[in-house]
Design brief:
This protein has about 725 residues and is of the alpha/beta class. It has helices at about 10-15, 75-80, 90-105, 130-140, 200-205, 215-225, 230-235, 245-250, 255-260, 280-285, 290-300, 350-355, 355-370, 375-380, 400-415, 435-445, 460-465, 475-485, 500-515, 540-550, 560-580, 585, 600-620, 645-655, 665-685, and strands at about 240, 240-245, 270, 275, 420-425, 450, 490-495, 515-520, 525, 530-535, 590-595, 640, 695-700, 710. The strands form five sheets. A five-stranded parallel sheet has the order 6-7-10-5-11, sandwiched between helices. A three-stranded mixed sheet has the order 12-13-14. Strands 1-2 form a two-stranded antiparallel ribbon. The longest helix has 23 residues, at about 560-580. The two termini are about 45 Å apart.
Length: about 725
Amino acid sequence: MAKRKKKTPSRQTVESAQPNSVHPGHPINPINPSNPVPSPSSINLATPVKPIRPIGPVDPITPPVEPASPIHPASQVTEEPSIEPIGVAEEFVKIQESNGPTEGLAKGWGYGTDDKESQVHFFDTSFTRLSFEDSERNTSEVLAADFNAGSTQSADEGYEHVSSEEQRAPDFSQYNQLPRLPPPDEPLRTGRQATGGFDVEKVIGAIQNGYSAAELREYLSYYHKAETTLLKENLNAEVRGFPATFYAVETNDAEIVRYWIKYGGDPNATHGTLHFPLLAFAILRGSRARLQATRTMETLLRLGASPLVIPAAYYNPFDRDLPEAGPDEKELYDIGDDERFWCIPELRPRLAAALSLTQRYRLWQAAGLEPATGRERTLAIRKDAVEILGLQYTIIGQRLATWSLRKSFLVHLAMPFKKPLVLLFAGPRGHGKRELVNKLAYLLSVDVQKVECTGLNVYDEIFGVKRPGQDYTLGSPLNDFLASKSKERSIVFIEEFDKTNQEIHKELLVPFDRGVYTDRRNGQKVDSSQTIWILSTSKFDDTISDFCIENSNIHDSDLRSEQYALRRQLHRRIRNECIASFGAPLTSRITEIIPFLTFNTEEQALIADKYIMELESLIAGPVVKSEDPDEDRLIGNVQLEITNDASVCSTIANEHYLPEFGASSISHGVDATITNQLISRYLEDGDDFSEDQAESRYRVGMNEDNEVEVLPELTSDGTNGYSGLGYSWLKGR
């Protein structure tokens, strides 16, 4: 008897076998295509989450993300009058009835009530704003099919062996624009001025109409203190059929996404029967505004989004040109897994078109990083430094430096005694030392005082004149900064530290060792134990370069033990030279030496992609003709299509990267290779400049001679970058 071929379990069977699986986005029930689509009035919206009641005035300082003991100010809450919150839709109707069709929206509201497209849209006008009724109808008419896995072993397993009705994929056009919510009739308020408590629909209506990230942070911070758990429920509620976090990502504003997730939003939220992931939504929606989309994606990964929802063939290896149709079927070995089941054949070329070189690198990087341990995460949360866990996603390359800094900072946080963290950033110019300082300050939300030591060998110029010397009351920028940050976490960044003298080194011994500084203006002691001192130098470049030549695998090292061993070897070499240059007393007070390496070939290409994205963002804005010619911006309304981005970026980097100048040499290469060609063609195309001139489109790619070329482009879908008008993943539908 012939053996019966074993069937692959259907998706429904797989899900039923995993009762503990959690899908934050509530899926929409499939609608039988043979039945009429229900009217919007017959659809029950998700039950709103219980609103958070306001409390009295609180300390405006942003609290930790998940404090050990959530604050429950019951006494203050009970003193507030009982206010029954009005639903957004009901309130909007009442305003419309009492004030007419437009007055109710504009009354007391300063977040954008004109006819312009809201900030969540692309720059093109192929999508019109939906009315609130149309938005609900668009959501309610979604057609979804439950795909059952077939018995073949191909990449399309589960798709080709379904009935004709089941082959009707979910209507992905619903992601063109999420439902529009009315803006609140007045600015969102906190404290005793708040009315009705926290309402997630009002917040979404606000961010869809210009509510800034800074305002959102202040608002969420207030309610986070009121009730952490209830705020988290609201931020993950279903709103008009979509998880609330999707609305935050739709803005393509990395800061809004940052605060939404920091205060409880789920970075792994999904939507619909195929569990369409938030990360894929961010990638596919952001295919045109690549710089903003990349920052949004990096924010999601840094705050916990899983890269595994994207099939590995799209980013491993990351430094290749993806085919326009997407990876070969044989490479998609993981496409049938539950978390990647959303990636149906129709979407695969769209995903390939949307993913830029840098985005593929971030996915590859995230897939290979070890997650923080439970103790590391708890420590970071309790010390209000949880974002430091994602430090590796903030700069390109320098994996050894970011790994070392992250480990050193966590160890410092865990120390039972108060002592400043003193770091030495050693490496060649243009390789990320200053950028990493800025990113560290950003993640910790602290201020930075920068001291440029070139030409400041005089002690008084750095610290100020000591009493009773002349002008001692004037202090100095560094002196005044330290005095203003007593007992507060802050960063002092001293650049070109090798230009300082022994007198300056001696003055730093006490602050480095005891965390105490004396204010030059009044002689008072300042507690600088929370200060992070970062000294940078390029003095040991030859030592670092020689070490990299001897250990060519240092860029490729992934194992924690190997990273640690290499780091300690290089640390010992630099430390010996540091003692010879700065003396043993100062060197002994340096907590950690952080080495910065030269860029390898892949990192060089990523630097080129970074500068190309910045160029795209710069020229996409409108043309501005001012009365003052110096304020003109005549290069504008220009869109670039990057084809074969890995080849383009690698070619630029290989021709222009100079280790002694670092990233700046690649920046000059982008200007010489792309910017100059682009502007030359732009100037040849028109008779004059106009603020309402038509959009100009150009394609950047490789020609037959394997050179980077810029050409005018009339119509093209493109790959790996900007992908034409509209959403690239909907082209050809």
